[in-house]
Every structure is written in structure tokens, then in C-alpha cells.
Write a structure and sequence with these properties.
- The structure is a single chain.
- The chain has about 375 residues and is α/β, with parallel strands linked by helices.
- Helix content is about 40%, strand content about 15%.
- The protein is built from twelve helices and twelve strands.
- The protein has helices spanning about 15-25, 35-55, 70-85, 100-110, 130-135, 155-165, 230, 240-275, 305-310, 330-335, 340-345, 360-380; strands at about 1-5, 65, 90-95, 115-120, 140-145, 170-175, 195-200, 210-215, 280, 295-300, 315, 345-350.
- The strands form three sheets. It has a seven-stranded mixed sheet with strand order 2-8-7-6-5-3-4, with helices on both faces. Strands 9-10-12 form a three-stranded antiparallel sheet.
- The radius of gyration is 21 Å and the shape is globular.
- The two termini are about 30 Å apart.
- The relative contact order is 0.16.
- Belongs to the class-V pyridoxal-phosphate-dependent aminotransferase family. NifS/IscS subfamily.
- It comes from Sporolactobacillus sp. Y61.
- GO terms for molecular function: cysteine desulfurase activity; iron-sulfur cluster binding; metal ion binding.
- This is Cysteine desulfurase family protein.
């Protein structure tokens, strides 16, 4: 098997799953219970929070454990909008966000908020000038993904964060789910108030995540209950998942410098090989993109047909983001970039992880080239 769908999810580290199992068996008590078993679970939760904060360079009380990227994005966007609506009702995001952000904004529009969706250029990048023009005195929240989940384009979040440092009545949220461990992003003193990461995108257990909430930032909780996570996210903590995720977090950060260089080499190999396939159109920009994602259309072949043809050979890629893959329409992100609808319907996403090898990429390129030739013959 050659797995090249790591933007959808990654294979969990064996060590992270061992931690998950050990904590499940030995620390099953509810951390909120007042007896000694609960106290041991609470102590482990505290230690995990301290470790996560240290690894991310922030304070422990700025860590909110969530169930993943969707919850993190929803809590950041809706929680901030509700908490600060007395300041204004204008929100800014982009037209190419993940569904968990876009649909949160659409819900807020129905509740009376005014949302500006910034357009993107042919490289899927938003313009800082467009952002400046869209900004208003009543803008209370800006939310922009760091790395686009289908194309890999890096958005100018550092530049926008610098601008927003001088606008204290506006919060800045970054969806860092696809960027974490591939495109470094400092959180402390960065101008970023809220940042989402997801455990299963860096080899942790599914159903885990972290929302960074800068000290002093208010959030209206989306769940009512026992007031866990500093009264920002009620519900019994997923302690096994949290501990497994924090172990994966540490392992990934340790591997990150060499891992990024490795991903860059694989990306170069992929780009060179894809460019030699007739009728291949690469949508990921050459510069300013994460090294882990490359999006390409093979003209004349529908993306679903190609995905299944590769699967028959034991190779796994995707059509678009996993959360949108069952939507039969062409990718909204590619359409927003100006890609023709037919071509957008022929795109596949190839996403790598540190564990992928040059040999796997060579095999993939050979199989893809053969499949393209065969499918074009059939479709004539």
C-alpha cells in the first residue's frame, strides 16, 4: 500500500496509540471526580496540558483541548463572534476555507452578522490589499487558514497578523490544521489570538485537537455543561486521546526540521514527474505552498475514476478534502481560483507525510502515468 492521502488523516504513531491504550486502562477515572483515582487522572491531564503548551511555546491556560479541527474552528469563530458582538457584527474570512469554517460563517450570517469572503488569485492566495480594503471599524473577527487544504497554498497570515496587532478590537483566528509541522507558525507574540490544530493530522488519535486561545481572549462556549477546559469547552475530557495526541505532538515536532526537508524533496520529485505526464495541469503554485500537498488535473479523466484506478493498484489519493469528498460537484476551491469547471472535476490531491519515501513516489508516478494512458484509451 502507498498512502498519499495524509491531508485527510495520517496513520497514528504506534507510540501514540500505546499511550492511548495505557491511559485508557490505567487512568479511566473522570478527571473531575473528587476521589483519588479522579485526582490521578486530573494530574495527568494537567501534565499533558503543560507539555502541549511547552511544545507550542504558549501558556498552559492558553490550551483548550477539543475533538479536532471542526470543533476548534467552530469554537473559535462562533465563540468569538458571540462574545464580542457588542463591538460590531462584521467578520472577514476567505472564499477557500475548510467547510468547518465556511459553514460556521454561513450560520453567523443567518444570525445577523455581516461576512466578507475575500477572493483568491490563480494561485489560491488572498491579497493583503484586499484584506485592508475589506477591514472596517466594526470588524470583530478575521479568520484565515494558514495552508489551503486542497491546493497547499500558504496564506499571508503573518502579514495580516502584523496589521491586526494595531487593531485591538479585532481578533485573529488561524486554521493551522494543514500547516502544522509542515509550515512553521509562531503563536506567542504573533498577533494571532486563536489557532486550531488537529491531532489526527500529525499522527495522533482521531477525535483530538487543540485550540490556542490567547490569554485574555473571551469565547462564548458552544456547549453548556460542567465548565471543563476553563469553562470554554464543557464535557468530560478525552484523556486517553489527549495523552496520545500530546505524545504525537512531541514526536512530530522532534522530526519537523528533517521532515520538512524530506517533504520538499518529495514535492520536487512529484512536480517533476507530473509535469512529464501529457495533459497534466498542476494547480499548486511552485512557490508559497506547503511541501505536503500537490493538486493536479489529468485532462479527460474524471477525478473519481482516477482515484479508483489508483486504488486498484494499492495507491490512495483523494479528490478534494475528506469533509467535502462526498459532494459530487467540482472543487469550490479550484473554481474560486478560476480553474474551469471541467478541469476542476478532474483534479486529485496528493498529500505526503514524513514516512513516505522517494521509492513510493516513483511507483506512484509510474502507476499514474500507466493509468492515465489506459483510461484515455477507454474514454476515446
Amino acid at each position: 500500500m502507498i498512502y498519499l492521502d495524509n491531508s485527510a488523516t495520517t496513520k497514528p504513531y504506534t507510540e501514540a496509540m500505546k499511550t492511548y491504550l495505557t491511559v485508557s486502562e490505567q487512568f479511566f477515572a473522570n478527571p473531575s471526580s473528587i476521589h483519588s483515582l479522579g485526582g490521578k487522572s486530573e494530574a495527568l491531564l494537567t501534565r499533558s496540558r503543560d507539555q502541549a503548551a511547552s511544545l507550542l511555546g504558549v501558556s498552559p491556560d492558553e490550551i483548550v483541548f477539543t475533538s479536532g479541527g471542526t470543533e476548534g474552528n467552530n469554537l473559535a469563530i462562533k465563540g468569538a463572534a458571540f462574545a464580542y458582538r457588542s463591538r460590531g457584527k462584521h467578520l472577514i474570512t476567505t472564499a477557500v476555507e475548510h467547510a468547518s469554517s465556511l459553514n460556521a460563517f454561513r450560520q453567523l450570517e443567518k444570525l445577523g452578522f455581516d461576512v466578507t469572503y475575500l477572493p483568491v488569485d490563480r494561485n489560491c492566495r488572498v491579497s493583503v490589499d484586499d484584506f485592508k480594503k475589506a477591514y472596517r471599524k466594526d470588524t470583530i473577527l478575521v479568520s484565515i487558514m494558514h495552508v489551503n487544504n486542497e491546493v497547499g497554498t500558504i496564506q499571508p497570515v503573518r502579514e495580516i497578523a502584523e496589521i491586526l496587532k494595531n487593531k485591538p478590537t479585532t481578533l485573529f483566528h488561524v486554521d493551522h490544521v494543514q500547516g502544522f509541522s509542515k509550515v512553521p507558525l509562531q503563536l506567542k507574540n504573533s498577533g494571532i489570538d486563536l489557532c486550531t490544530i488537529s491531532g489526527h493530522k500529525f499522527h495522533g488519535p482521531e477525535g483530538t485537537g487543540i485550540l490556542f486561545v490567547r490569554k485574555g481572549t473571551l469565547l462564548s462556549p458552544l456547549l453548556s455543561g460542567g465548565g471543563q477546559e476553563g469553562e470554554r469547552r464543557s464535557g468530560t475530557e478525552n484523556l486517553p486521546g489527549i495523552c496520545g495526541m500530546v505524545r504525537a505532538l512531541r514526536m512530530t515536532i522532534e522530526k519537523e526540521p528533517e521532515g520538512i526537508r524530506h517533504l520538499q524533496a518529495l514535492q520536487k520529485q512529484l512536480r517533476k514527474g507530473l509535469s512529464q505526464i501529457p495533459d497534466a495541469v498542476i494547480h499548486t503554485p511552485v512557490s508559497g505552498a506547503a511541501p505536503s500537498i500537490i493538486n493536479v488535473s489529468l485532462k479527460g479523466i474524471k477525478s473519481e475514476v482516477l482515484v479508483h484506478a489508483l486504488e486498484e493498484k494499492g495507491i490512495y489519493v483523494s479528490t478534494k478534502s475528506a469533509c467535502s469528498s462526498k459532494d459530487s460537484g467540482a472543487s469550490g476551491i479550484l473554481l474560486a481560483m478560476g480553474v474551469p469547471e471541467t478541469e476542476a472535476g478532474q483534479a486529485i490531491r496528493i498529500s505526503t507525510a514524513f514516512e513516505n519515501t522517494a521509492e513510493q513516489i516513483s511507483t506512484f508516478l509510474n502507476v499514474l502515468s500507466d493509468a492515465a494512458d489506459r483510461l484515455k484509451m477507454v474514454m476515446r
